[in-house]
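Priority: medium. Attachment 1 of 2:
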């Protein structure tokens, strides 16, 4: 079992692994959402509208390029 409650000192634990896991999950969520939105727009415009494949592909590429430009950002995360 754990030691006495007095052994715990708030703020002394190394959280580097938790921070890197958090950044990995947030990155996967961000870029995965962009990929899903692009694919969804391609398929919806291709199969459900008269725009066809070329209209859907053009829209998906524009969405992907804008998404990468906006999500990439130029800011670095501050060090903890």
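Attachment 2 of 2:
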């Amino acid at each position: 079992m754990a030691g006495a409650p007095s052994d715990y000192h708030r703020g002394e634990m190394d959280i580097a692994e938790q921070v890197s896991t958090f950044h990995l999950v947030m990155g996967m969520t961000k870029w995965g959402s962009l990929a899903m939105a692009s694919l969804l727009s391609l398929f919806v415009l291709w199969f459900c509208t008269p725009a066809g494949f070329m209209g859907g592909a053009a829209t998906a590429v524009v969405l992907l390029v804008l998404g990468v430009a906006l999500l990439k950002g130029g800011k670095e995360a501050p060090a903890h």
